[in-house]
Design goal:
globular, alpha+beta, about 270 residues, single chain
Length: about 270
């Protein structure tokens, strides 16, 4: 049963099961299962996100992260991992890759973090799959210069979420460009639902933030409008955004949620 399987695996280092992931991936390649999941520019879409899998106020190990309550001083011990899965907007199936664990590293007294785990993950994914063409898609926490530069170092494309509250300089630049007529804006009626409207705004080659103005990204903003609800999203990407590819890039950015639904929820429940 799954409980006994977890008991058996408790003593196993995560690195020892990496070959199992590679073995499954190799069989999928040989069986031509991966070919339909090519998403854009001959690349696969790789969704990344952190998730917790252990939390206790009583039990802990040397690798546990710690969180101290400001009100009571009570310590919570927890462990997390950076999960990764190849996803595609048109498929409910996902292909999980070996995760990187966000745990206190050997010899370290400070908590580990998702950003450090991503650095280790990029290095390992390129060791396991050196030539696999990938586009990473993540939430707005990853839209920072060090993370993007690290992705570029390992030849990884990206579609990363951004939020106005976290990226005020970027959104101000876009608003100024919009006033000058330098942005591209247009709308599309959904092919399958005439009551749904897709609204796009994009701007290429804009600085990510004030302290990293030498790092230019391409900005995409999107609204899904129906008679009862409007959904709003925004991303940055290294792909030049055009009217021909903006719909595709939007779908790639929204497919990030498959790491939550089809991956984490399925594997945990």
């Amino acid at each position: 049963c799954d409980t006994q399987m977890r008991t058996i695996l408790d003593e196993v280092s995560p690195e020892e099961i990496r070959p199992a992931y590679k073995g499954v991936f190799r069989e999928l390649q040989r069986g031509k299962v991966l070919e339909p999941m090519v998403f854009f520019e001959e690349c696969y879409l790789l969704s990344l996100d952190g998730t917790g899998y252990f939390s206790s106020k009583k039990r802990s190990s040397d690798s546990c992260l710690t969180k101290v309550s400001k009100k009571t001083g009570e310590v919570t011990y927890h462990q997390q991992m950076l999960g990764a899965a190849i996803v595609h907007p048109d498929f409910k199936e996902v292909i999980p890759l070996a995760p990187e664990f966000i745990i206190k590293q050997d010899g370290q007294s400070k908590n580990d973090c998702e950003r450090n785990a991503a650095k280790r993950f990029f290095k390992k994914i390129r060791k396991d799959h050196p030539r696999l063409p990938l586009i990473i898609t993540e939430d707005s926490l990853s839209s920072n210069a060090p993370h993007i530069e690290k992705a570029k170092k390992y030849n990884l494309h990206y579609i990363l979420g951004v939020k106005k509250g976290d990226h005020a300089f970027l959104f101000n630049q876009v608003e100024e460009a919009q006033k000058k007529g330098e942005t591209t804006q247009f709308e599309l009626v959904d092919e399958d639902n005439p009551e749904m409207l897709h609204r796009f705004l994009f701007l290429n080659q804009v600085p990510l933030n004030e302290s990293n103005q030498n790092l230019s990204i391409n900005f995409l903003e999107y609204w899904e409008i129906t008679p009862t609800k409007t959904k709003h999203f925004s991303w940055v990407t290294d792909f030049t955004v055009t009217k021909d590819n903006v719909y595709k890039l939007m779908r790639g950015g929204r497919a990030r949620w498959k790491i939550e639904n089809e991956t984490f929820n399925t594997l945990k429940n």
